[in-house]
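Researcher: Good morning. I'm working through a list of sequences from a screen, and I'd like to move beyond sequence-only analysis. For each chain I'm collecting a predicted structure so we can compare shapes side by side. This is the next one on the list. No need for commentary yet; just the structure.
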Amino acid sequence: QTAVDSLSFTVKEGEIFGFLGPNGAGKTTTLLMLLGLSRPSGGSAKICGLNPLRDSMAVKRMVGYLPENVGFYADLDAVQSLEYVASLNSIPQNEASQKIEALLDLIGLKNDANKKVDNFSRGMKQRLGIAEVLIKDPKVLFLDEPTLGLDPDGAIRLIDLVASLNRDRNITVLLSSHHLHQVQKISHRVGIMIGGKMVAEGSIEGLAKEKFGIGEKRYSLEEIYMEYFQEV
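Model: Good morning. C-alpha cells for this chain:
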C-alpha cells in the first residue's frame, strides 16, 4: 500500500498551515517523515533548510511535535515533567526553572504545577504537552489532532493558545485536524490530502474561488473540503 503518493507542498515561515484529510489519508505518515522518524521510499524534504534524514538531530532541536496521544509519566507532576524534558534537551537547570515558570503561566497550569499528571484532564495534558514542546524554543510546531477528545471550552483555549504562539513568537505551525471550523479560525493556508495525495493547497478564499467562483457568499472550509472529497 502506498501511504503517501508523490506529495509536494510548502509551508511558509511564520504561517499556520491546516493539514486536512480523512483517516488513512497519510497525514500522520507525512508528519513522521518530516520529523525524520519514518524513512520515505523516495523523494526529499527540508525543514528550516535541513534534511530530516541526514540532519535528524538538528531538525528535532528546531521542531516541536505534539502527537495525537501525548504520553506522560503519571507519577510526575507538571513541574517534574517539564524538568525532565528540559534535561533531555540539555537546558541548564537555572534556565529551565525560569522557562518552566513562564510556560506554566502561559498554558494556564500555574495553579496545578505540583499536581500529578495522572490526575490531569485531557485538556490539561494537551496544554502540558504544548509546554513540553515549547521549552526548547522551537521554530516549527507539528500538531497532530491537538483538540481530539477535548470539550468545547478546552478546544477553544488550545486553539487560541496556538494562534497566540504563532502571532507573538512567530512560530510556524503545521496543524493536522478533523475539526475544520477550528482550522478555518486560525489557518493562513490549508492543504487537503486524500488517498496519499495533496488534492488542494492554498488560502481558504482562494480554494473557495476555485471551486465556487466569485460571488457574495462566503463558503466555510467544510463546504470547500466536501467539494474536493466528493471528486476523489
